[in-house]
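RECORD TYPE: protein structure
NAME: TraB/GumN family protein
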Amino acid sequence: MPLKRFISGLAAALSLLLAGAAPAHAGPPVPLLWKVSDADNAVYLLGSFHLLRREDYPLSADVDAAFADAEGLVFELAPEEANAPDLPARMAQAAMRTRAGTLERDLGPALWGKLQGYAAAHQLPLAQLAAFDPWFIGLTIALMEMGKQGLDPALGLDRHFMEGAARAGKPTAGLERGDEQIAVLAGMSLDEQRQMLADALQQVEEGQDRYRDLHAAWRAGDAERMWREMAAEMKRDYPALYRRINVQRNDAWLPKLEQRLARQDDDTLVVVGALHLLGEDGVVEKLRAKGYTVERICSACRP
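PREDICTED:
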């Protein structure tokens, strides 16, 4: 298979995933939604699952009310960046190996053996895959595995509200640029990249229950469970990776969120991955520590 065609195929895997059977759910998801406010303005923080199913809609009345109250919306990437048709290809291009030596040498015998096994089981051409850095391979594997659960990025919470903002004529913005997000991944040390790939392959070994459980925890609005099973495990097992993709980005976002709070009567709905809102490193607690009033909005959580 020519390398150019293989790159296109991997890039497509970042935006189009496999369809799968989806279990039925009763009622809308319980939102991971917080309201952060000062004397005259508010920022709603909504924890997203970037890949969802049609059965995850409609959303709760709490979320609909936050959207209605907000004059503008903010995402990790602004809609024009997130929807840029060349974004997956740019990410794949940034992942092309430039380091001397081979992927096999970079990974070491144990991790290379696991990747060989995965590639053989899923009919992926290992020789072509080895042209990329480990972070990209890990990301591709994770997306493929979530796709098997019927989770689709086109149905993610971010996309839902990007489309909703466009229909309502509400202004949108991003907390970071597409190139910055790519640079976070491409700028990982080799050790961090190995961690990312090892984590993706470990989740494959644990089976589809891992992704199913995380999705179920998100639907249940179970912040504590999501912290334990997603954030706390990553912080413990892959501390360098956790700092790069979570803590450092959260810290970079804080001044931009405070700028929103400094406005008068101009509320904002911020939709970001749930990981960024959880625990002491999450933006919820970081804003609380700065003295803002913070409350969780969750009608379904009340007795």
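COMMENT: The first helix runs from residue 3 to 13.
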